[in-house]
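Dear U.,

For the methods section draft, I wanted the exact inputs and outputs in one place so we can describe them consistently. I've listed the two proteins in the order they'll appear in the manuscript figures. Please don't edit the token lines directly; just add comments below if something needs changing.

First protein:
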Amino acid sequence: MQLKRIITIAAFAVSGLIITSCSRQVTRVNTDEAIDVSGNWNNTDSRLVAQDLTQNILGAAWLSNHLEQNAGKKPVVIVGMVQNKSHEHIEAETFVKDVEQAFLQTQRVRLVQGGKKREELRAEKADQQSNASVSSMKKFGLENGADYILQGSINSIVDSHKRKKVVYYQVNLELTNIQTNEVVWIGEKKIAKYVKN
């Protein structure tokens, strides 16, 4: 009887520990608030780097040169591939969307779709050729061709010893004139994070 009571008490104690250790508290926060939990690349890094580099791009000489050479007509830009070459899994598409959003907010360039989204748009146009009324059908060959393509990479270096590490990120972007293949702008943004466990 005594052994049975001890086993019952032990079982309750263990289940109490399990329930306590599994409880989780979730708090909603402002998405603009900078919170570093792991020290890894996060949404704040993506947003700030995109804003900084976009501001840098739009302040460079290529834009005024383009406007001057094209009677004030805004350049058409496509954001191409940004490769993740870092040590982490970074969803580069999130960064690309942050760059595109920063471009659109300024209204200083015109932005066209690229990659898979452009393919989807073309597939929709193809479908409309046989399924939409002639008056509402969108025609092929009327897309805005991009004047420039923005491409780049996200790189990282980790320096660690025991329970300390410094994570260094470098984002490199290049803007290229599609007609001439001339690189008209190169920019980089660096972030360093000191993490102590």
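Second protein (the one for the lower panel):
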Amino acid sequence: MTASEPASAGASAERPTTTQRPLRAHAQRNRDKLIAVARSAFATADETVSLESIAREAGVGIGTLYRHFPTREALVEAVYAAEIDAIATSAPALLERFPPEMALRAWMDRYATFFAMKRGMADALRAGQASGRIPTSTTRERITASVMTILAEGADTGSLRADVDPDDVTTMLVGIFLATAALDTPEQTGRLLDLLIDALRPQESR
């Protein structure tokens, strides 16, 4: 999900490339570290996370953070985009490791973690969505596409139902996460996801 830092438009053609590459690589590492630390902080925090604490945990100065992310909203949007990319592209790798029904359950756990993390970014996310910088319709399409990938594989192997609309699964997942968010009970979330997986198996295999 992380985008490469663009090269400066004013860079001189005569500047040695050996001095450019380490700077770009170093800047990218700093950006990646900031996003990783912010992701963890937003996932576990019960209150607003300070940008200073994120910079300190990432081992960079607050000035470095602001060079990459001028506002809290910019950092939140980068974390959000990185998480969506990770979730949306994880289905093929999970299917290589697990049978389809187990891959889907593992993917649901990953999505649940992301949904919990969103609570720590709620205000900034609402601002980004209101401004159109975070396209919610595209996000849902990408999530549903991942569900469809796993369901199709499961239908081919006979381990998952072939008559399920992937968007219905997305809707049920969002309902589960919203219903359990206030209670903050991961155990209950897990039980509900298990029930959903069972409902997605062909009737003869339940």
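Candidate sentences for the figure legend, describing the second protein: The chain has two domains: 15-70, 73-205. The chain has a mean pLDDT of 83.

Thanks,
Y.
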